[in-house]
Structure formats: C-alpha cells, structure tokens
Amino acid sequence: MRLELSPLLKIIGDWISSLGLPTWLVDLIEMIGAAAMVMGMAFLIILFLVWWERKLSGHFQQRFGPMRTGWHGWLQTIADGIKLFQKEDIIPKTVDRKVFYWAPVICFASSFAAFACLPWGKNLWPTDLNIGILYIFAITTFTVISLLMAGWSSNNKYALLGGMRSAAQIVSYEVPLTLSVLGVIVATQSLSMVAIVGAQEKVYNWFIFRQPLGFLIYLIAATAETNRAPFDIPEAEQELVAGFNIEYSGMKFAMFFMAEFLNLFLVSAVAVTLFLGGWHGPFLPSWLWFLLKAFLIVFVIIWFKWTYPRLRVDQLMEFCWKFLLPLAFLNLIVAGFLFR
Amino acid sequence: MDSAIAPYLFYLFSFVVVVSGLLVVTLRDIFHCALFLILCLFSVAGIYVLLGADFIAAVQVLLYVGAIAVLMIFAIMLTAKVSGIGIKQQNEQVPIAIITTVAFVAIALYGLGKTIWNIKTDVAIPDNTTMAIGKLLMTTYVVPFEIVSVVLLAALIGAIVIARRN
Amino acid sequence: MSFPNVDFALLSPSLIVCITALLTMLLVPFLGEKRQVVVAHLSWIGLSIALFAVSQQIGKNATTFGGMFLGDDFSQFFSGIFIVAAMLTIFTSIDYLRRKENEHGEYYPLILFATYGMMVMASSSNLLVIFLGLEIMSVSLYVLAGFARTELKSTEAAIKYFLLGAFATGFTVFGIAFVYGVTGTFDVAGIINAAFGQSNVDTFLIIGSALLLIGFGFKVAAVPFHMWAPDAYEGAPSPITGFMSAGPKAAAFAAMLRIFSVGFGSTVPHLQTLFWIVAVATMTVGNIIALRQNNIKRMLAFSSIAHAGYILIALVVGTGEASSAAALYLLAYALTNLGAFMVIALVDSGAKHDEFTSIDTYTGLARKRPFLGLALTLFMLSLAGFPPTAGFMGKFVLFKAAVSQGFYVLIVIAVLNSLVSVFYYLRVVVKMFMTEPDGQPVEVPAVPVFLMVALAFAVAAVLLIGVYPQGWFNFAGLSILGAN
To answer: Which of C398, C215, C426 is nearest to C303 (CA)?
Structure first.
C-alpha cells in the first residue's frame, strides 16, 4: 500500500463542495488552498535545499559545513531565516524606491507561479494546462525582468553590471533550453506536463533514454538559467562583489535568495517531468519518487557548482550560440525523424 | 474560460492594459515606461487566456516579456544619459495629436455601433489550440509562415551590417 | 496530413532570387576583404537566371498554395521590373562601392532580399503575404539606405526611413486587421465578395482601407506622407537611391493596384475620391517643391513624388487597362530613373567622402564628356515625358486610360504638372550643355565596364519603350488574377 496524497486531497475537496457554498466560492477556496499547499511545499523545499547545498559544498571541500544548530546543523537555515527577518531593512538613499521594492517580489512570484503546473505525484497537481511546459517557460521570463529591475534601481555599478550580465545570459540560454525540450514535445505531441509524464510509464520510455542529447543540453542550459557555477558570471564575487542583489538586505534579500533556490528546484522538477519519468517509480509513493528524482538533479547541479571553474563572458556566449544551439537544432531534427 | 469570474477578469485586464498603456506614453522616466509596457503586454496575454487562446497567451509573454521587453531595457541601459533624467514625452504638436486621436476614436466608435463583424459562431474553439495552430501553419498558411523566416533573416543580416566594426 | 500540391515552376523566379541571396550571404564571410566583388557577380548571375525563369512563366496565369501565390502576367511583368532594377543597381554599385571604400559583400544579398520581398508583394492577392513581402523589402532597404555608415547623411537617411517606415507599417497592419475583422478573409477577391452584395458597406471596412492607403502611401511617398523621401533619397548611397526610386515604388504600386484597383475601389465608397485628392496633391506638391532644389538627388526625390502622383491616377480610374498602363509607366520610370542614377553615382564616386550631388557639379559636364551628358539628357527628357522616350509612352498610355473613363479634370491637372516639371528637368540639361564651370571643374571618373553595360542597356531600353512598345506590350491589359 503506497501512501498517496491525492485520495486525501479528494476527501477534503468533496467535503468543501458538500458544504453548500456557491460555486465561485468553492472554486476560490480550492484555488487558494492549492496555492497555499504549494507555497508550504516550496518553503519546506527551500529550507531543505539551503541546508543541503551548504552541507554538500562542505563535504565537496573536505569540511563539515554547518554542524552546531541541530543534528548536523539541520536547524541552521531556520536560524538564518529568523536572523534575516529581524534585520533592519536598509534602503539606500539613491535607489529608485518603487522599482527597488517590486524587483524581489516579482522575482519570487514568477518562480513560484511556475510551480502551478508541476505534476507532484499521481493525480497530484494544482492544475494541468494544455500548454504546461510553455507556461513554465513563459512565466519564468519575469525573472529576467526582476533582475534587470534590481540592477537598474539599485543605482550601483556592480548591481547594474550583474543585472545585465544575468539577463544576457538567461535570454541567451533560454533558446537552447526551449529547443532541447522540443524533442520530448514532438514525441508526446503535447505540451501538457501531465501528458508528458503519462507517456513515460515504463522505465525504457523515459525520455532520458530516448532523448539523451536533449537531456544533456537541457541540464547545461538549466544550470546557466539558474545563474549557477560554472555559469555564475552575474554574481562573480571577485568582479562584482555580489551582482544584482548587492544593495539588498533583510527580507528583500531573502526573497531573491529564496527565488534562486525555487528556480533551482523548478528546473530540476521540469527535468524530472520531461526526461526522468516524473512521478513514475516502483514501491514508493509517487510524490516521494518525484521529490527524490528532483533532488537527484539538484544534487548534480550543486556538484557542477563545486567542481567546475567559472567561464568567461565571451566563452559563455560562444558556448551557447556556437555549440549548444546547433546541437539543440540537431537534436530536434533527429527527434523529428525518430518520432514520426 | 467559462468561469463565473471571467467577465470581471476581462474588465480587470482591460483596465490594466489601458492604464499601463497611458503610463507608458506619459511617464518621464524611460525605465518606468518600459516596465509599464511589460505590464501592459502581460495583461493583453491575460485577455488572450480569457478568450481561450492559451497558446497565443504564452507566446505573447514568452516573446514580448522575455525577449522584446528585455531587449528594450538593454537598449535603455546601454544608452548614455537617459538614466534618471525626466524625458519630455510631449512636444508642441500635442494639440494636433489630440485632435487626430479624438477624431479617430469618434469615427471608430461610430463605426463600432454599425459594423457587423465577421464572427463565426458555428466554429467551436478547439480544446487544444496549439495543435490547431500548428496544423494551420503547415497547411493553409504555409506560405506566410515560410516567408516570415526570410523577414527575420533579412532583419538579422541588417542588424549585423549596422553593428559591424569599422 | 499531406504536403500541399506545389507548383514549383511558378515559384521558381522568386525562389531563385531567394536562394541566390542565401548562398551569397553564406559566401560573404569566407571571402577575403579584397574579393567581396565575387558576391556581386554571383548576385547578377543569379538574377539573370531568375529573369529567364520569369520569361518561362509568362502566359501561364496559374496559382499555387491554395491561391496564396499567384503567377499571372501582372506579377511576371513586375517581377521582371524588380529583377532588372536589381541587376542595374548591382552593376552601378560594383565600382561605386570600390571608390567609396565601402566594399562589404552583405550589400548584395540585401539587394537580393529586397528584390525577393518585392516579388512576393507583386505575386499575391493575400494581404498577409503582401504585408510580409513589404516587410522583407523595407527591412533590407532600411539597412541599405544607411550602408555608408561613416557618412552622417547616410545614417540620417536610414533612421528617418526606418522610423517613418516602421510607423507606416503600423498603419498597414492596423488596416489589414480591420479589413480582416469585417470580412473574415485576407484575400482581396474574398474581401470584395464579402463587401459587394451589401447595401451599406461597414464603416470599419472603409477605415481599414483608408489605413491601408496610408501605409502604402508612405511607401510610394504620396503627399501628405512624403516627408521622409527627400532626406532618405539624399543620404542613401546613390545606387541605392536609384534602386529605392525604382523597385520599392513599383512593388508598392503593384500591391496597391492589386488591392485597390479592380473591384475594391468601386465597392468601397469614398475611396476613389480619396485617391483623386491624394493623386492631385502628390503630383502638384512634388513638382512645385522640385523646382527649388539644388541637390540633384533631392530634386529627383521630389520628382519621384510627382511621378507617384501620376501613377495614382491608375488607382482613381480603377480599370484593368489603367493597371496595365501603370505597370508600363512604372517600367519606364524605373529604367529612366535607374539610368539617371547611374550617371549620378558615377559623378558622386569622384569624391571619396564629400558627395558631388549638387546640380552645380554638372556644370559643363556635357562639354567634357559628351556621351555621359547625352545619356543624362535622354533620361531627363524621359522623366519630363518628351517623345520618343519611355517616359512619354508611359504617360501617354496612362492618360489615355484615364481619358477613356472620362477623368478630364484630372488629366488636365496632370498635363499642366508635366509642363511645370519640364523646367527643373531641363535645368540640369542647360547646366550641362550651356554653362562654363567657374573654377576647377569636377573630375568625373572614367566609365567602368559594368556601368557601361548597364548604361547602354538603360539608354536602349528607354528608347525602345518610347519608339516601339506595341511589339511586346499588350495594351489591352495584363491578365490580373485574384480580382473580379
């Protein structure tokens, strides 16, 4: 007996609709309820990921990472969170206040909004859109805008450079990223995340085996999309101190920070959905499979970060336009022949 | 969208489109103008969703917000002496512009009441618009679809010619 | 899903131009800086193949892609104009670019792309396809106008042309959207059918047509949308100015004749009156302002505005005969203007940076270089409409088509305008033949081979059209598909 979550949610849903409320209210409650659940999930994931990245980076560098707060430092993130909440929210005098205020909000909101059509488990998704994967790519483009807003409004040359660098990088790598998943879409003839997972029930149907090149391109481009090493030029400490978020402190900084981890999880979750069979797997409950696979990808991306040196800006762009992009087109052409 | 709140959402989106559009052409900080343009385009995508054109909506956001608006902001950032300066959006031709606009709106409103729009009510909106659009692009509209690629190519070469060194 | 049945023979002329453009474009980076001229030669060879392909399609009158792509005599005639214009421009440019030290191979693919766009415009009665052709043409020309990047005037020309052109594009799209909204189709015949039976035509169809008229009016530089033309013509490199006045103008008129002329004008009320006013305003304003110009390129810019006014007469008349007459007029005008700009480009290329484009530069030219002087004189006479030149035949056929429909007032105005224009055209001739240069005369370079060929061709063609048009031109009218 697997411990599935969807029957439980169904019972709650039935109970709400049996209360005799007007339909629009039921709709609203269900929408808000789903959003709240995903939000809670997102915060748990952030808490875990921050700790995990610190532990992993420690161990990659032959040290322990946080050890003192809780068992192996597992309460460290919570402590840090409390610290950030209490911190004074410093807004420098010369910033463009409104834009400065909205940038972290948009950044967090756009990452979070993409979670709406992730299939977390069997019958467990907030919504199944016809255009699922396209929706995710579309809504996350607001991240670029928010970084540019932060960089511009901070009125600081490092912030501006960081914002511009990250925008250039994200916009460029979005092209191979989008092209790399087209192979999967050609095969399933659908943009819906649920339908894509449905096409991968058997392990040998997983798209990592049918589209290995596509997966590789996706993984590389996704690493660049999240501005992580070896593609962390936007916040290259030696050059830009901290990049676009240099003037931010307190909760605003925390929102950027959280959005970064949300993005990290998001690209991993999309990779799982498109290439690793989503929530399909034996024995364990489906949602646990989903999380495990996603964390595996997160692990790989963190592994990249602590293994490879940073690229130079021109290398980064050349790699994208002259190598990844033609390869992504090749992959698409091959997919076109394979999945006729 | 056949939800009960759809009409209200339509008015909300339309309101945002109009207000943000007005702000684009009246604000003095060019960066703020660009941001409101993004809001305007995003709200248009919302209207597309209400009309059941989900694919168009996503593409609208992907292209206009993700590519065109970012390009505009880049241009603003790379242009010297536009930051923080209030740029005048009006000139001495404002009265003429107002007269022209009012005249056009008046004619358009007059026409709106009289025009019988060619609305095909007997055709159901396909459930999966992506596939429907794809099929049309590959059959009925294959000529324009292919020619568009030449437009883009010519623009690409043009941009390179203009931007080359020496 | 089956692949649509495609008539590739019908597509061949435009496809050859497009493929030549792609191949030459790919070749440019692989050629050294010294060998960019290879691209020019490949380009004109490709164009001549395309011209042959056009000649094979004459008389076929077929459509393909479900009527989206037409191959009637009208489109083949215009395709011929575009290809010849592009070839002559390339011949003029080879030496011009070398002398201006601006030899970049991308120049030629851009001309080819523009040509392809024009051919698309002339070969469809679908508003969507026409619009896309218009965009290909315009985008290429914006860049070509600013090709001399070190010259401030060239950049100015490109920016003005681009900004106003992009603005005009907005009008065109707006118009297409309205027309589509009312009729539910992009096809001209379908639009006419939708509008025909109705007792009162929808307001938005009229608004949409008016917006389309504005959009195309910008492209042909009709008054009051002509403001960009003088600056763009003056600043662009001289061969490109010639190309701009010949090709795009013909293409925009080809599209306009297809959309507005047959059926549409009489179906949509007030449109004919609108055309009447625009035509008269265009020819009058163009001619009067041209009188005061001292720069020959600016003068020819206003002259081209005036000629647009004459051609607009065909849209007022709105018969098939008038459309064919306009096609002949556009051919005559294109050859004449391209010929004139060959001489202008040659004189202009005498200086590396400062442009020799003032009319005073031509003082005494004919005494030193009689053949150049005679050639330019012939072109000026043709522009003014003297027999036995192409310009005369174009005007004669067009005015005759208008008179046969009873547009007497319009033709009287047009003839009076032609008389005014004689003054400024002959001013150049007088300068060349009858005045002595004070001080050092301008050194005009020797005529290079390719320019010689092009010039000889232009002179011969202008005379041939003027003397013996009935041998090859069907005066009863070209067959135009997609109109009823």
So the answer is: C426
